[in-house]
TrEMBL record:
Pfam families per UniProt: Tim17 (PF02466)
Location of the protein in the cell: Membrane
Protein name, per record: Outer envelope pore protein 16-2, chloroplastic
Main location group: membrane
InterPro entries cross-referenced by the UniProt entry: Tim23-like
Keywords linked to the UniProt accession: Membrane, Transmembrane, Transmembrane helix
Signal peptide from the UniProt entry: none
Any one Gene Ontology molecular-function term assigned to this protein's record: amino acid transmembrane transporter activity
Superkingdom in the source lineage: Eukaryota
Membrane topology, from the record: Multi-pass membrane protein
Organism whose genome encodes this protein: Brassica cretica (Mustard)
GO CC term (a single one): chloroplast outer membrane
Length: 161
């Protein structure tokens, strides 16, 4: 096999990983749309029952209570829940990506833990406000702090590994 042919294929794969899926005319819009589509597609591919079984065996609490497998209602419930969660993950990724890009541009090209911390906090707070109808102030603050901590740790650890 010709090694140059194999190298060309790998170069194409690497260029696809770096390229945006959309060209909307502005890098910020491209990045938000790209992150939204990638995160929502990835989330839609996960099985709803991938998590560990409940530790309390007497608890009959299900993540999808309408899924029983005996009718088309279960398929409808699966589609609605998967679509809703995909949209939430897509919005979170788009919001986070857009904020980090905006912070980088506003701070003169600096991409450090500060951008990640602010983006994580704002994304965490926004997600807390959109996931439940009765969200308390404490839940929003907790989600903001959690988002900031996770994104800051990820940014700091990415430079180590």
């Amino acid at each position: 096999m010709d090694k140059s042919g194999g190298k060309k294929v790998m170069d194409e794969i690497r260029s696809f990983e770096k390229a945006n899926l959309f060209d909307l005319g502005h890098p910020l819009l491209n990045r938000i749309a790209d992150s939204f589509v990638k995160a929502s597609c990835i989330r839609a591919g996960f099985d709803a029952n991938m998590g560990p079984p409940s530790e309390n065996a007497s608890s009959k609490e299900h993540r999808f209570p309408n899924l029983r497998g005996e009718s088309s209602k279960s398929l409808d419930a699966l589609v609605k829940n998967t679509g809703k969660e995909s949209l939430q993950w897509g919005l979170a990724a788009g919001l986070y990506s857009g904020i980090t890009y905006g912070m980088k541009e506003a701070r003169g090209g600096a991409h450090d833990w500060v951008n990640s911390s602010v983006a994580g906090a704002l994304t965490g707070a926004a997600m807390a406000m959109t996931t439940s109808e009765s969200t308390s102030h404490d839940q929003v603050v907790q989600s903001a702090l959690t988002g900031a901590a996770i994104s800051t740790a990820a940014n700091l650890l990415s430079s180590v590994f």
